[in-house]
Amino acid sequence: MQKSIASLFGVVKDGPEAGSFPMQRRTDKEIGKDGKLKPQSFAKVLQPMAAGKGGEEETPYQILMREVKEELGEDFVRVLSQKNEEEFFPVFEKEYIDKEGDKVKNYNYLAIITGDDLKKIKIHSGAESILVFLKREDLDKIKTTKQIEEKDIKDSDLVMFADQLSALKGVIENLKK
Questions:
Q1: C-alpha to C-alpha distance for 56 and 115, rounded to whole angstroms
Q2: pLDDT tens string 11-61
Q3: SS3 165
Q4: What does pTM read for this prediction?
């Protein structure tokens, strides 16, 4: 069975965060299905603005927009839907085998975001994440979850899952073209 994942990366084109890449950073706690706070796995890890898995019946774009709505809010879905193909587009796809042995196809999208667009983001309260802004010079400082134990991650560390760091670097490489 093939799994599909869609990820949204962004680059800010103006304002105080110009040139940065907005990322979600997990906090220590998350709201469980029962509505109660519980410890969150991989706290403090950076992730794309939005990302999620989908079923075979969903297109990568449908997966992405569902996840954007869940994680960043309806207003930001409207922002993306109004962008043209030079401001919001798929950058590349990557296939790999996950730890369960299933084939995964990851679809990575890029949105060129304005400072005003950022004001429309409303991170889902259940996500228990915060928005942080990475600069290009931060890339060399990022460690992967394979390089550092979860319990050893400090607030000052920049840590990502290896596949998502690879995707971010791919997005940045595509920006240079």
A1: 35
A2: 999 999 999 999 999 887 766 777 777 777 788 899 999 999 997 789 999
A3: helix
A4: 0.88
Where do runs of H (alpha helix) occur along 105-158?
115-118
> CA 67, 73, 75, 76 torsion: positive or negative?
negative
* CA atoms lying within 13 Å on the CB side of residue 11: 20
List pLDDT tens digits, range 73-95: 999 999 999 999 999 999 888 88
User: Which distant-in-sequence residues (6+ apart) come within 8 Å of 26 by Cβ?
Assistant: 40, 42, 43, 44, 45, 47, 128, 129
Please name the fold of domain 2-30+43-176.
Nucleoside Triphosphate Pyrophosphohydrolase (3.90.79)
Helix (H) or strand (E) holding 68: helix 60-72
Give residue for tokens 């073209």.
Answer: 177
